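#structure-requests
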Amino acid sequence: MVVLAELRDRFPALDGLLMQLRGLLDPRRVLLVPEDEALHLAWRSQDGWEMSTMVLPPDLCRSGHPLNPEVLGESIADLLLERGFSLPQVEVELLLPLISCQWRLLEGTASAALTGDELRALQPELGWSLSLEDSYLDVQQQPQADVAVVVGIERQLLQAWADTLKEADLPLLRAEWLLTAGWRGLCDAHAGADEHLVWLVEQQGRWRLLLISNGCPEVDLSLQALKQPALRDEVLGLVEAWAPVGLPGWWVTAAPQWQGCWAAEHDSRQGPLRSDAELSLLDLALTASLGARDA
């Protein structure tokens, strides 16, 4: 140790080399989950998931877009350093906020083999506000042979987050939409218990309704109502219009303050309630295979 200290005194650049070596020998994957009002970091430890949150001022992130990459990047770096990370060892996996992406279910024997470039060349009408030419497309194959899910995000937005992390000297290992990560966690947790599933998702006080058949989303709607009983009335009307064959299961994904709220008025004749806000969307995403690779 004395020799190492002397070498550091004689060669100050040695500290930087040692940090880079630590990054090579002990890389750490950290999930970055941005919201307009906060940044969440998650990483695996021997005891499971650890979380850290930083409240953001209103001028750093809006509608999923980083407004000040330099300051936001420095904030991310500072938060990692506070948690004991060496920046060269960190590899970031970005979970993009709900507002930033759009998705569609593709059906047909050809859909399972499509790539993003091939889909862009076909120029299908997906009903998106996104331009296919200016978007990054991720085609996710499903267990069913003739089904795929395509997720779209503006290239400009993805580049903005890459630039933000670059300001912190952090590599962007991969990016995924928070909703698809949560959906994969849902599929693992639900394990096909119901052929049809009503999935209610709350994020930052807003609600989203997804109607799922055989594990794949058929309907995805942003709801107008924010509180009960208007929320329940809106959901029941949409589920009735969906008219699944047989009783669907119900799964509510929401912040802890919503736990038990749906069960208080749920009628079992509408189908079994499988979960009532036991997990938030981020919690559910962390149960997916994305997190399992960090075990």
